[in-house]
Specification:
Elements: H1 4-14, E1 16-17, H2 19-32, H3 37-43, E2 49-51, H4 53-64, H5 83-91, E3 97-104, E4 113-119, E5 122-126, E6 130-132
Parallel strand pairs: 1-2
Antiparallel strand pairs: 2-3, 3-4, 4-5, 5-6
Amino acid sequence: MRTNLQIFESIKETGFITESDLQLLKNRANKAQKDDYTELYNILDHQDIRLTPSQGAKGLKWLKSFISKRDPQTTIKGACYGYREFEIINNAKEDEFTFRGFYDAGNGWHKNFLPIYELNGMEYIPMETPYIIG
């Protein structure tokens, strides 16, 4: 089993965070009920943490799944996209996704960390539908 420091060093060397490493960090943060992302950000000297192109392809497909096929300017399944989000998603490429840290979606007694992703200026959290935060 890899330690967090080994994962951080791997990210520093490659510039990418793999899906399995991201899941492992999320699981550890939820189990420990604390977020170690600040330590990762300091180790990486505040550089962007990119997702692999295959993760970006999955993310882009997921984001596009909330856009109506009949009218590309409307959303389905309760997603809340505005004009800016439509433009970003429709013009995005697979290699433009970055990991921004964890968001605590828990309550006062229990923490539930979810990853925050950024795509060309749009920050979102993957919940049942995309939760746009920036």
